[in-house]
Amino acid sequence: MASQLQQALRSLCCNTPWKYAVFWKLTHRARMMLTWEDAYYDNNGFPGKKSSGSTAGNLYDGHYSNNHLGVAVAKMSYHVYSLGEGYDI
């Protein structure tokens, strides 16, 4: 059974034009870190997939090797950001 967070992320993708939703959380360490908590990816319309969506737990199973958005969402899960860091424009 999906968690409330997974259901909320899925709802964002099913009720809007969004294809994926990611929930990030602040982790208290020596510095505040923004880390991946969970995600939902709407792979509806992707050939070869029987399900209409994926959660973070099954984004890594290799089914997205030919799907650029699926790969990007899966790779995003490895990123950790230090609070206050950003790009200078």
Automatic annotation (TrEMBL):
Keyword Transcription regulation (UniProt): yes
Transcription factor MYC/MYB N-terminal domain ranges (all copies): 5-50
Classification via InterPro entries: LHW-like (IPR043561), MYC/MYB_N (IPR025610)
Molecular-function annotations in GO: DNA-binding transcription factor activity
UniProt cross-references to Pfam families, sorted A to Z: bHLH-MYC_N
Coiled-coil stretches noted in the UniProt entry, renumbered to this chain: none
Keywords assigned: Transcription, Transcription regulation
PANTHER family, alphabetized: TRANSCRIPTION FACTOR BHLH155-LIKE ISOFORM X1-RELATED (PTHR46196), TRANSCRIPTION FACTOR EMB1444-RELATED (PTHR46196:SF1)
Protein name: Transcription factor MYC/MYB N-terminal domain-containing protein
Protein source organism: Solanum commersonii (Commerson's wild potato)
